Amino acid sequence: MQETTQIELLDWMQEDTHPEAVDMMVEDAVVPFGTALWPV
């Protein structure tokens, strides 16, 4: 289930997105996303 979420997230990140939205997402998700990648 976690792998599917990461795949969907990568697909979403590849889509065209407004820079402001990306910056906002990164600021909110940089810590949980980074810690989630550590075990992999």
Automatic annotation (TrEMBL):
This is Mercuric reductase. It comes from Burkholderia territorii.
